[in-house]
């Protein structure tokens, strides 16, 4: 049984689709063993508890108080190191970032080399970082693009949404779309693409 750790900062809809897929067998021979969040009120933590999955709440603010002499880089490294050790205790085969809103240091990523996946609501090289859907919608309104997309990629370093692509798909934008229409279309397609990508990567590891 392959062990999945999921990191989510918010509502956790992609997390829910992954949990459902492991429980139904859509992602075969795998289970989510832990869910981590940096936000106490992230509904992702409640989703995990609803399924009897262990949770890790790992906020940054206490570190600022505990280590007042550290600069931002040193603080980030300490925070990452403690989260890394907490996750390693679960011996995960794959780390899945599902709406995780922080960048990891290289020391963290080296501990899970080749085993960290992220999903981003844009095609490779387009709209990296925050508010990708809004930026795509605005670009469409200006006549600069006719569609946007989604990609699942590996996270080998501290780059933002630029790791090697595992899977990607185009998402159409229609003239009558509101921003909410586009967001709903992307999110519904994200869930299926992430399940396919996780299954693909686990099969590659098994091979």
Q: What do you see in this structure?
A:
This protein is α/β, with parallel strands linked by helices and 207 residues long. It has a single domain, classed as Rossmann fold, CATH 3.40.50.170. Helices cover 42% and strands 21% of the residues. It is built from 7 helices and 7 strands. It has helices spanning 13-24, 43-50, 61-66, 72-88, 106-111, 132-141, 179-206, and strands at 2-7, 30-37, 54-57, 94-97, 116-120, 147-154, 165-172. The chain has a 7-stranded mixed beta sheet with strand order 3-2-1-4-5-6-7. The longest helix is centred in the C-terminal third of the chain and has 28 residues, at 179-206. The model has no long low-confidence stretch (mean pLDDT 95).
Topology of this protein?
Blueprint: E1 2-7, H1 13-24, E2 30-37, H2 43-50, E3 54-57, H3 61-66, H4 72-88, E4 94-97, H5 106-111, E5 116-120, H6 132-141, E6 147-154, E7 165-172, H7 179-206
Parallel strand pairs: 1-2, 1-4, 2-3, 4-5
Antiparallel strand pairs: 5-6, 6-7
Helix pairs in contact: 1-7
Strand content: 15-25%
Query: What is the helical fraction, as a range of percent?
Result: 40-55%
Which structural category do the helix and sheet elements fall into? alpha/beta
- By CATH, the superfamily comes out as Formyl transferase, N-terminal domain
CATH architectural type: 3-Layer(aba) Sandwich
Provide the number of structural domains: 1
Shape estimate: globular
What is the strand arrangement across the widest sheet? 3-2-1-4-5-6-7
Rg calculated over all Cα atoms: 17 Å
**CATH topology annotation:** Rossmann fold
In CATH's first tier, which class applies? Alpha Beta
